Amino acid sequence: MSLARKLALLVAVPLIAVVGFAALALSTSVGQAVDSGRLADEVSLGRTAGALTRDLHRERLASLAMLQNPPTDDQRAEFRRLAGETDAHAAEYRTRRAALSVVPDHFADVLGRIDTALADLPGLREQVLSGEHANLSAITFRYRITAADLATLRERVSAGAPAELTGDLRAAAQLSRITEYIGLQEIAVLRAAADPYLSPAMNDEVRAARAGVVDAAYAFSQGAPAAWRDWYDRARVGEDATAVQVLDDGVARTQPGQKVVLDAAAWTAAMNAHLDRLGAVEQRVDDAVVASVEAHRDGQVLRTLIQAAIVVATLAAAVALAIWLGTPMIRGLRGLRSAAHTAAYESLPIAVFALRGRNALGNATPKEYADAHGDAVAVRGTDEIAQVGKAFNELNHSAIHLAAQQAALRDQMDSMFVALARRAERLTSALIAQVDLTERGEQDPDRLAALFTLDHLATRMRRTNNSLLILGGEGSARVRKEPMTCHDLLGAAVSQIARYQQVDLHSEVDQQNLDRVVASEMTDHLAHLFAELIDNATAFSSPNSRVTVVAAPAGDGVVVTVTDKGLGFAPDALAAARASLADPDQNPGAVRAMGLAVVGRIASWYGIDIEIRSEPKQGTVVKVGLPPRVFTRRADFDWFHGQAKATAPSTIATTPAKPEQAPAAGADQRDSAKISGVMTAFARGIGAHRSANGKPDRPAPDLVEKS
């Protein structure tokens, strides 16, 4: 997972927690706002129910007048007018009833009864108007039940209201109950006055209505605000209220069985006036309740919006802060990663690789070389990322500085190799010159054989010196001017090893008389290369086994195969040998494993491919692919090469004669000297490995004779 995702996850987890808690709080506020809106709708419905209750009372009072006596046309017209007003409020009630998105459980049943009663009103009115099958008690009872359900609806509105609104809603419902009980009292007294005498049941009904008014008025006074009580008290004073009190006192003094003496018109007028005054108070109370509920709803909505805005602003601020702080940090880390990646995989390897050649530092010191490469990472600021960048720059500088120190040490070691090899070469050359001088004047075959042995040892010493020169990046001290055939080249290589008697040479290139001879400037290095390979083959083989060297054409080049039946390589040793050949400059044991390091370095100079196949106790096969660039035309082959070829077999190169094969004592001195000279020349490989080539970082130049 990337760092950006980790940081995003680190920021997202607390944000999600905050959002969760905020959502919980917001859901509560939203729920309260929704409940406040629903309560406002319910209160509006209750206000309409109060107006509908008053209309139903007037309609009920008109129906009573029509059913007690034969109705007149004016009474019918008035009844229809009152029914129209009731229908108008009933339509408003249905509209507000439909506006309820959710019907609360606490008054779902009463809503159903009210809906049914309103639907049955047209039929009830037809009975009143026609007078057929009209029962006064049944009709007044149905009006009473509907009015009671409407009052119950108003009372139940307060069930789901907040505590601060519950008292006002209950007080408003009690005020509606007062008007309903006063209406019931008015109807009961009128019915009692119409009868010949006051029956006990009718007396109880009148008393119950009067008691209901008292109880509702007491409940109202306990829960209503002072302003509402003042409105109610003012509505209870006046001529109509006094008239109602006087008439009601007269009815109250009537005992059951007595005739109720009452002016029905005065009673009705006084009661209706009193109800109108109370109805006005009820409307004012309802308006105040609706205003309070709507204010509460608006407050809840505003509170919810403020909370939502705070939550959104907090989240936006948190996200903005995370982006503001995290973006530079992520950008810095990405820049650090990119710079470190570039330094680790590009600039640092290039800087180290540039130190592989000789004298790569030039005149600069390791510190100057490291300082010249500058910082790998651009550092800005002083925070932890900048500190990591500084530490990485120090690490990169130390790595380059260490590589430069190693390059300087390697140059010093190369210089030591070259200096030692040059000194040894001068001594070896002096030794060979002295041996040659002694050979020319020596006539004793035994001494010639001993001199031959010394000459051969000196030649091997010269190969060791040349190996040190090659490891030091220099060529050999002497340079050949003539090209050589492949067979002569391999013969020169064999002449430089200790166990030359085990080697069998075969050159299909020379047998097929191909126009391919080794260029003069490369002969000594190639002879050195094959001498190292053949020497390894004989060194790790039994003295009784044979080492076969075969040169065969391959396209425009030549493939030389060196095969032995020796110990072979273990897998780890084979891998190390191949690595040494592939990258000889990085071989830390170049002096200890000088042969492979020298072979690898010469092969890298001339683009020679070398393949090693080996199995433990099965021997080793080395294939050397010589490219076309190491050959020249056979037309350049001079008289010396022809003489050298004439003195050696064409197929099997019998290597220099052993000391016991020297001419017997007493032979012709001139013949002995001649044979000794030929043996000595051949032992040195017909101009053994005495050449130098260019440095490894450029093609080998044309070589000239050196002293």
UniProtKB/TrEMBL annotation:
Transmembrane stretches, start-end: 305-327
UniProt EC number: 2.7.13.3
Highest taxon listed in the record's lineage: Bacteria
Classification via InterPro entries: 2C_sensor_his_kinase, HATPase_C_sf, HATPase_dom, His_kinase_dom, Nitrate/nitrite_sensing
Matching Pfam families: HATPase_c, NIT
Extent of the signal sequence: none
Keywords: Kinase, Membrane, Phosphoprotein, Transferase, Transmembrane, Transmembrane helix, Two-component regulatory system
Domain Histidine kinase: 408-630
Reaction(s) catalysed by this chain's protein: ATP + protein L-histidine = ADP + protein N-phospho-L-histidine
Compositional bias segments (type: Basic and acidic residues): 695-707
Gene Ontology molecular-function annotations: protein histidine kinase activity
Family annotation (PANTHER family): SENSOR PROTEIN CREC
Sequence segments annotated as region (Disordered): 648-673, 686-707
Official protein name in the record: histidine kinase
Ribosomal protein in keyword set: no
Taxonomic lineage: Bacteria, Bacillati, Actinomycetota, Actinomycetes, Pseudonocardiales
